[in-house]
Amino acid sequence: MAARRKIRLLVVEDNPAYLHLVQEAFSNRRGQAQWDLTVAKDGEEALQVLLKQGREIANLPDIVLLDWNLPKVTGSEVLRQVKEHPKLRRMPVLVFSSSEADEDIHAAYDNHANGYITKPDTVEALEAVVETIERFWIAVARLPKVARSIGLS
Description:
Layout (H helix, E strand, L loop, with lengths): L4 E8 L3 H12 L5 E8 L2 H9 L5 E3 L3 E5 L7 H10 L8 E5 L4 H9 L4 E4 L4 H18 L8 E3 L2
Parallel strand pairs: 1-2, 1-4, 4-5, 5-6
Antiparallel strand pairs: 3-7
Helix pairs in contact: 1-5, 2-3
């Protein structure tokens, strides 16, 4: 069996119970990827992880799974800042939200989200979504080579 690719995933989720389910779903995968998860519990923390505010260098994820309805800094604002940043904009950002509102879906795609996924409401459905993410983003699509660090100056 071929070695599993290590994929760095930033999960931005403010609900501790749902975050636990997401972490379990990714860590229990035995597919093509070995998921290395970093967690941000709100939009402000997500931007700190991505931009390492106050520091020169940031370790970057390969993919971001971004909750839309976040405290402090909204998912919409996190997405906007990522997609406007010249060294972050190629990073795939998948919006992961309980909202099915057309205005949220349109706003995500207007701000260049790479996908909008409605949060599943069962563990089985969540595991199927994680499998689909892996199948598409790891087995089918080619991820851009994101530098492991960026100089922010």
